[in-house]
Amino acid sequence: MKETQKLYDYISCIRQQNKVDIHSIINTTLVINPYITNFPKDFLLDNFKKENKLKLFIFHSVKFYFFNVIRFIFFIQIFFYHKLLYKKPKHDISKHDLILDIYVLVDGVIKENKFNDNYFPALYPILKKNKIKHMFIPRLYGLSSNPFKLHQQLKSFFQVINKDTNNFLFEAELLSAKDFFQLAWLILYYPFKTLSQLVKEKNQQDASFNSHLLRDISKQQFDAFSRYIFGKNIAKISDISKIYSWSEFQVIERAFNYAIRKNSDIKVYACQFLVSHPVYFNMHVQDVDEFNGSAPHKVLVNGSYYLLERERVDYQLGVSLRYQEIFEYQSQNLGSNVILLGSYFINETMNMLKLVSNLDAVIFKGHPAIDVDIFLDVMGKNIKVTNENIYNLFPETALIIGSATGSLAEAIACGVSVVVVAQENELITNPLVDMGKGKMWDIAFNAIEVEQKIKKLLEFRNKNMDEIKVIATWYKDNFFIEPTEENIVRAFELN
User: Fold this and answer.
1) Sign for the pseudo-dihedral over CA of 419, 421, 425, 426
2) Dihedral of CA 247/252/258/263: which sign?
3) Running DSSP on this structure, what letter comes out for residue 480?
4) Second label for 446, Cα 20 to 30 Å away, from 167, 271, 371, 401?
5) What string of pLDDT tens digits covers the 495 residues of the chain?
């Protein structure tokens, strides 16, 4: 914990000294997303090395321009496809009480032939009951990079959306020629603005930071620039008062928040209705984020455990809209199955599948965004694949194996034991806390430890079911808030 705080303090100090502008707001290294930049890992594990800064700047700037020019052309394509394919009539934004900023999985909409929001599911019956109108500003996810496939994909997508009764506001609807020029300028200027964020090298940490700063130029996300433009355009709509944004506080949210707050009085509520882990550093809103204008006005969290003490940032209890099943689950979990939950990160899943190859029998449930077929070569005969809902699996399950997924906390809250798989010399992406460690959950780094931990945890649960229930209840009470009508109304300020 102390080392983690040193990381936050180090980055906050740099950010306070930097000029506040969109380029510093979205800088990948300063945001310290561990899935994008390696700086947090190297800082915490004391991995330092000297590198030629000029070579790093040239190489990663060229790489940045190459990929962002492609992405810019791709963005223009989407703009024209939107104009061509989106047929719904324009609607009066002022007549909507809530604006919801969410991801939309394009292929999911096409496959189901309907639009379903999986982020705020329990909210909509209450909005309907109270005749509260809402509108979506979707972030399209999973678009094909192939221009020919993209056309067909968007054609199929908008065929569904055009028939949907919900109202949407897409980025393309507000774009002007001026916006494209500004977007191009932001991209062109970014590598050179990064140079202004280099620090005077007083120690190894400073040298490492500078190296990562230059290396991360090529990792900068195009969407951060486009969401900034979108935020500026949203800010011009005077009738909007509140936006509820699904938020992991990544660069796209920071850019959007900054544009909104700099140009309007619209209030942005960051809805962090998910289970996270401590090393997902970017998700934690710091006081410096409020200082530089990239923070939301309020951060709504999934449970009391996630409330953070800040001087400037307003953390409040939200509601667990996606976790209704936890509060409905009643089983005693008397089964014996061992389930492996796949990760969003393919390498993590590959590693876990190898570690369980010697177990007698394992049920494998892949991540919904990842095709399980890519793992066939590493699956042993002991592994059976399932697509079943985890809550249907829990009653026959004694233990779950996984990494970097909130489903591990769901399992614990429902009385199922857990082995968290970690890797040596890597940050441990564990969503659980000390409560219940060694009794209901534990960490394993290799195949031998996986077997040992499974044996230890199963022996404990067989002899201590009462304590298992106590631990499960603690996680349920601290990590989640039941999505009752009362709690939803409170969280979204609907009264």
Assistant:
1) negative
2) negative
3) -
4) 371
5) 667 899 999 999 999 988 899 999 999 999 999 999 999 999 998 888 788 999 999 999 999 999 999 999 999 999 999 999 999 887 777 667 789 999 999 999 999 999 999 899 999 999 999 888 899 999 999 898 888 899 999 999 999 999 999 999 999 999 999 999 999 999 999 999 999 999 999 999 999 999 999 999 999 999 999 999 999 999 998 788 899 999 999 999 999 999 999 999 999 999 999 999 889 999 999 999 999 999 999 999 999 999 999 999 999 999 999 999 999 998 776 678 899 998 888 888 888 888 888 888 889 998 877 888 888 888 888 889 898 999 999 998 989 999 878 899 999 999 999 999 998 888 888 999 999 999 999 999 999 999 999 999 999 998 999 999 999 999 999 999 999 999 999 999 998
The CA distance from 357 to 182, in Å, is 53
Query: What's the CATH class of domain 325-479?
Result: alpha beta
Residue 353 near residue 341, CB atoms below 8 Å: no
Whose structure tokens read 């399980």? 372
SS3 1: coil
Nearest Cα to Cα of residue 222 among 101, 70, 369: 70
Domain ranges of the chain: 325-479
Locus of tokens 């429902």: 414
Write the DSSP assignment of 182-219 as a string of letters.
HHHHHHHHHHHHHHTT-----SHHHHHHHHHHHHGGGG
Q: Which residue has the tokens 């026959």?
A: 396
Report the predicted TM-score, pTM, of the whole model to 2 decimal places: 0.93
